[in-house]
From TrEMBL:
This protein's GO CC annotations: extracellular space
Key words, A-Z: Disulfide bond, Secreted, Signal
Lineage: Eukaryota, Metazoa, Ecdysozoa, Arthropoda, Hexapoda
The keyword Secreted is annotated on this UniProt entry: yes
Subcellular locations according to the entry: Secreted
Protein name stated in the entry: Uncharacterized protein
Length: 149
């Protein structure tokens, strides 16, 4: 019986520590990463030059190319997965992590969580990423810009 309790206790500690450290290995991305990801996603999706110029100015028109570009970028930043959706903790780490400790109970985290809401049933992954991304950028634009400068 003692062995079972020890094994169970170890399993609980392992699972909870794994869950807790899941985001701790996230590496805050740099401006160089942003540029590299932008090139990779624009090449993959054949994004026209005039759209790329808009993206560089934080303008994201509501079209299919832009929606999938946003999904690609969020996947490269490790913020989004088409099955799981947005990873609020990683987004928050990216925004605040470069500037100090992250408090996942603060207002920024709440704003991110609202934008990263569950996938609407009538949308595909690109549209889901776009909807969350536009909300996210509108709520935290200065943080987004400063996190990759």
């Amino acid at each position: 019986m003692k062995t079972v309790i020890v094994i169970l206790a170890f399993a609980i500690v392992t699972v909870s520590s794994h869950h807790h450290h899941e985001h701790d290995d996230y590496v805050v991305k740099t401006r160089d990463d942003l540029i590299k990801f932008r090139d990779e996603c624009s090449n993959k999706l054949n994004v026209p030059a005039e759209l790329l110029e808009k993206y560089k100015k934080w303008q994201y028109p509501e079209d299919d190319v832009t929606k999938c570009y946003m999904q690609c970028m969020f996947e490269k930043f490790e913020f989004f997965d088409e099955k799981q959706g947005f990873d609020v903790h990683k987004i928050h780490l990216q925004l605040v992590g470069a500037h100090g400790p992250v408090d996942h109970s603060d207002e920024t985290h709440e704003k991110i969580a609202k934008c990263a809401a569950k996938k609407p049933e009538d949308t595909n992954a690109c549209a889901w990423a776009y909807r969350g991304g536009v909300c996210f950028i509108n709520s935290n634009l200065q943080l987004v810009k400063s996190s990759v400068n």
